[in-house]
Description:
Order of helices and strands: EEHHHHHH
Number of helices: 6
Largest sheet: 2 strands, antiparallel
Amino acid sequence: MKHTAYFGDGEKTFALTTEMVLELERKTGVGIAALYARFMRQEFHFADMIEIVRTGLIGGGISPTEAQTLVDTYAKPRPVMEVFPLAFDILDARWNGTPEEVAE
């Protein structure tokens, strides 16, 4: 349930591990299903999008400090439509799995 994409200064692995899903729920104030539904309806908050990227980076193996620096530098100042696809792909990898996992 990982997603790999170019973000900031290179390829990064994003993963919403169980611990990161719980952190994401805490930070956004809603359960994972409600958050996914928000994204499907495009009724998400800007903070939701940023937290998905941040927690995905941490779940992918980047330190919390570096993850915060990366989102502050490469996600927060960018147009929503540049960050939205990444955030959705990270969330969707946890929700539906990745094509490689489904094939297995």
